[in-house]
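debug: dumping io for the single-chain case to check the tokenizer round-trip. Nothing else runs in this session.
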Amino acid sequence: MKTTSSRETANNLAVFFDFENIGIGLNNRRDRFDIGRVLERLVEKGKIVVKKAYADWSRFAQYTAPLHEAAIELIEIPRRSQTGKNSADIRLCVDAMDLAYSKDHIDTFVIVSGDSDFSPLVSKLKELGKHVIGLGLAEATSDLLRDNCDEFIYYDDLGKPTSTVLPVMNQQISETKKKAFGLLMESLLALRRENKEVLWSSMVKDTMKRKKPSFNEEYHGYRTFSELLEDAQEHGLIELEKHKTSGTYVVTRFGSEPHMGLPAVPSTTMASPSSAAANGGGGGRGRSRGRGRSRPAGAPAPAAGPERRNPLMTPDVEAVADVLPVEEIVENVEDRHGDDHDGFGAGIE
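debug: decoded output
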């Protein structure tokens, strides 16, 4: 259950382009590799902190300008004429492992390639607790690499329309507001693509800032981001509700999707044993109450004393003890072996 205190923080991404592999996939295609489409999809995953591309750039000179404009570091790896194989993949692996060990804040690695040679790298990164995303051309992607990644995105699927139909904006809306509302709609779609169920206003704004770092609600005529959301609701683009405990706006619907509603407020009180028994059906062989005797109706509950911990108990043993108290364990064993064993369990508290 999600609350305002458990909102997901943005992931920190490191993106590595293996342009040698991308070039293989582009040989039989007429269209150019669009760097902007790739980065626009990846910023929906989180904050990109490292961007590197590896290739013999004398062979891909037409891509150096777009890569520079996207602030991607170009790593020059001259092609080895002796073997016909360059060392771009080796350099990429070394740099990725160096970041994995030295930069703990980077939790997501993106490998833009379809080369199966990167499968050991993916396995090692996952072993280190990193989330690994693959991205590649459908015709140049190995099944081994695709299946080994935590997530794989096909380049051909980028930019495809979604099932959610966005509302048509009123022509009387100013161009400045249309730009803000357009970015808002794109960000809401991006969050839905990432399977975000609760769309907190702060989460929406962070996504808008990642997609367009220059975004500022004041430029579009709003004092606060909440005013922008309220205006979008007045124009019928979204539906808002305020969270009961925090007062934060939550987007409950936009476009053609159904109304999602607010997240439930977690209860701060524990259910009493009597209510638990009523919900669980009383007697029987419920797991939570064991197979043995239950406390008679109306009998007072034992007074709660100070918590006692055995220093020799491991966390696993403590977890089991919390689920089944000692008295219930004894009753279960007595029921299994019969009550004719006098003194069984005596002295066990």
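debug: round-trip ok. The first strand starts at residue 11 and ends at 18.
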